[in-house]
What we know:
Distance between the termini: 58 Å
Number of strands: 20
Structural class: alpha+beta
CATH architecture of the largest domain: 2-Layer Sandwich
CATH class of the largest domain: Alpha Beta
Number of helices: 15
Oligomer: single chain
Number of domains: 3
Strand content: 15-25%
Helix content: 25-40%
Radius of gyration: 24 Å
CATH superfamily of the largest domain: Sulfite Reductase Hemoprotein, domain 1
CATH topology of the largest domain: Sulfite Reductase Hemoprotein, domain 1
Largest sheet: 5 strands, antiparallel
Amino acid sequence: MENKLNKRERYKAQLTPIDYYKDFKDIDFESLTEVDRFYLQDFGIFSVEFLDDEFTVRLRVPGGRISAQEFQKVADIAAEFELSIILTARGGIQLHNVMADNVLEIYNRANALRLTTWQSFGDNVRNIITDVYDGCGEFAEIEAYPILMQMHNYIIKNPRYVGMLPRRISVAISGNRANVTSFFANDLYFALSQKNGVFGFNVYMGGKNTEVAQCADIFLKPEEVFDFFKAFVEAFYLHGSRFSRAKTRLFHMIEEIGMDGLKAHIKNEYKKDFESGGELVLQKARFDEFHKLKDARFGFCYQTDFSRLTTDEIGKIASFATQNSAEIRFGIDQNIYIIGLNEPSFALKSPAISSTIVACAGNLCPYAVWSIKDETSYLPLEKINEHRIQVGFSGCAKGCGRHRHTDIGLIGLKTNNFGDTDGGARIFLGAEHSHGGAVGRQLFSMVPFVHLESVVSLAIKLYELSGYGDFEEYASKVLNNYSEEFVSLWFLANLETNSTFELLPRDEIGSFEYEKELLKKEFSGLDFWEHADENFHNAVSYLSKKLWTIEGEDPHYKPKIERTNFR
């Protein structure tokens, strides 16, 4: 059967996004077609299907750096039009609850700032990210921001690429020896490396929210990165698949032609030979609320309400930054960093404990079914913060919460598998995320929200018993050396008996018989054994339904206090 262009590619063939934009000022946002909604994504405007007259406007913030004046102007727009504001997991800003008759004015005012909405959605190079302590933190070796801005300026409004790539491309670059958050979930990642005593960047390609970027065995000097980026974008533009949307990401291109095939396409545009990769310079570090900078000043992590902001707190942050000549940066952890404090103190109190938790937009996005940010109330936040455990919470399998690149990952989904409840989360554990080792493995396909806290708390208790100082190391040495089904059943058996039997470290995954003996040692009296035949799958299914089937209303539900989104 002959491959056919997917629907979006057929739209592009009929009319390019740049040509569509020529009539942008005349768009009637109250009478949009499916085609209109497709093109508007390239300019940062999109809507939830069931809210035809309500839109979201997404702003790119290159490298997460924003001036106090720009931040205040965004807040002014939000206050005037009574909009909700969140930070994205790529260090940008989203304005929600934009009514149809206000879209054009808000779009124009937002784009009058140094920021832009262009290519923040759709088939584009999305907002390019780096570490919040780029160039200034104690781990900084190369300031990546100037290179990042070269890439940003090249792509923005370039008629060849606006909305015309086969699929989205996420790009990260870091010149730091340690980062607040891992970047291996990106399609293209320039990671700090060293070769022959010179600092530069190793290239990693093919990552996405559910896959780890692979080493391309290419080393670039800082002055070579921009040319490589241009060659990369052109190669993907020319050779990326434009057929089934499910197979158009860079990851699938590598699956089809291999890393060497992709490198050959890039080299054809780059016009130079590649230098083989250097030594990755990347260490694990703990980032606390205050971080000492190279100039002996400090950076402060203002923990947002899981990315939600009020115009009042923006005003206070902007005013403080102006008065104290401090810099404002957004992290891809959805928190705000104040750079350049003379003392490790800050006047404003963070509204939540969110520094190690990324929660996607939730039901503000067309694809999610739960609020997600509210569902963080089911998590043991104090313990997560105490151990600096990385948590990613996504509202759908697309994974904008990067749930498979964290210590504990969650997807909020609908279910009625456990009686009178329709809310739950799929749970993943044990990503080896700091160095791009592996994504997290599935622990449970579904846990009702009412039981979520007990399951996550057990994971933390077992980690505490292990004696390891870092959850990622615990996952590498312990959890990931047992089969997924065994770990799931071990958790369930502990939950049923209200126990915390420790799992011991192993060098390799044991056999089914070995794992069966471990279970029998501690849990021989439980009734799941009649379901444990050639594997543990049926036993997991039986015991999870036995433990988690509930009736009536959620007894753990705690209504959240409504936060005012505008003055």
